[in-house]
dTDP-4-amino-4,6-dideoxygalactose transaminase (Kibdelosporangium banguiense), 390 residues
Amino acid sequence: MNSRSAPPIPFFTQASSFERCWPEIRRHLNALFDRGKYSHGRQVVELEKMLAAYTGAEHVLAVNSGTDALTLLLRAAGVRRGDEVVVPAFSFVATASSVALALAKPVFADIDPESYSLDPDSAEAAVTERTTAIMPTHLFWQLADMAGIGQVAARHNLTVVEDSAESIGMRWDGTHAGLLGKGGVLSFFPTKTLGALGDAGAIVTNDPDVADQAAILRHHGRMGRTTDHIAGISNLSGASGTNSKMDDIQACVLMGKLPHLDADIARRAVLAEAYTERLRAVPGVLRLPSLAKREVQSDPVFYVYVIEVERRDELVEHLTRQGIGTEVYYPTPLHLQPCFAELGYRRGDFPNAEAACEHTVALPFHHDLDEDTVDRVCEAIRTFYTGSRN
């Protein structure tokens, strides 16, 4: 098919999968409309139970976004005003901005170039007398080195909090992401492996004290139906609670989609292998997804399919002209973001993070994708680097 006449390939769509899940979603919505309570109601409680069963978490608290989940989790885990939290320089901005929103200071460290996650040695070098927590981010398809990070935390008496927003379904020796420290989070942003129709998130933890504090914080600092707001300056990180309750309509969507999650994850694995097989020998492609070599192997779940390439920005322009959508995760490392300029970091401080920002690109990837579309994307990449067609 001529590329000019071929239909565009979006980076993400959930049209077909949503249609497949619609009967179950509609059933939950009908129950919601019959009941008439649309915020923090019975559907949210039911979703929390389903997520607890899926992840093995003792406590799940649904909130209105992954960013709020991170911020509230940090506060509930004991991060206080002025504390330092070590985070990776390569991640979505919420990884670091959540620390700032918890009134603490993000301190950056470099990443392991294989996993794109926080490098334990670099993280340890960033620890100071004010450091109280370390927050690895599980990116793209695998967990961070939780054994190495756990050792750093133990040597310096640090709390481990996981930015596990992308990692539903990922497990480390059988333990679900987010449950390897004080707690973690899930994001249900529409593009996620389990996506809502808008913003939504959750905190997962096995620590009852963290769960209790997070439950108070997400509801204006109050417990249950009381009107006494108990979360304040004296007993938490320096601010009162907030309004971060999940919308029950989003809970209905997620409950309708959750039973299909394992099949969707399996489909993503097939598509990832199809991409890898077709791109393995393409010149200009520097690195394909792989699992970091560790004593404990984590279960991969492909949230996105990210490769490293030469002339990344030119390739993106070429694919755009072919009607092929892409995303760059992430064009600027966190330590060079303008919002963190006052922290004093400079280019060259974290070379692995900076290299990833220069070379990575995410290709169209979702469980509605078919292998003919994968063929077309890979052929467009090969053509860019070779200047010829088969």
User: Anything to note?
Assistant: DSSP finds twelve helices and 13 strands in the chain. The longest helix spans residues 15-35.
